[in-house]
Amino acid sequence: MIKATYSDKKYIVDILHSAFEPIHEPNSINFIVKQDYKRSQRIRILMEYLFDDCMAFGEVLLSDNKNACILLKYPHTQKITAAHILWQIKLAFKCIGLGGVYKVLKRQAVLKKHHIKEPYIHPVIMGAKNEVRGFGIGVRLIKQLIAYYSDNELPVIIETTTNENLLMYERFGFKVFKQLKTKDFPLYFLRMN
User: What pTM was computed for the model?
Assistant: First the structure.
């Protein structure tokens, strides 16, 4: 794995945009992003926010072949800063839309409620370039991540909304510790430690 720096921001955002822009079915990204004619631009703004947030309170890692990335957060290190507040305001106005802020905040509260209370590592998002989708990049990325954190003692907590991802995570030793049924899509909480 290659540890990203701020100079990698555009490249990382491009990877994530490429991975999620073509997906229109209900998922966490489409739940957050206002669905209108600016959807593609709004997804890019979300990915910029996630990059900045994870660089400030975690790590951003590129796969060795630079076709995929994963953004990690260490929630126990997060502090409210002026920059963080500005990022959230930009996200509200330019990505979520004012009408969607309440539903996103409500969902974030549900997510936080079901996370563990002790320190943990939180893979926030991962994706591969759309043109390499289906070539096992995601599986290799998770293998690289597990190797990267082989000496780690903190649990890893992840959420997913798709059965495909659920099965993949379970193959690597993640265990479901909570499942929620929302009106839009199921939400699975998984843990590995």
Answer: 0.90
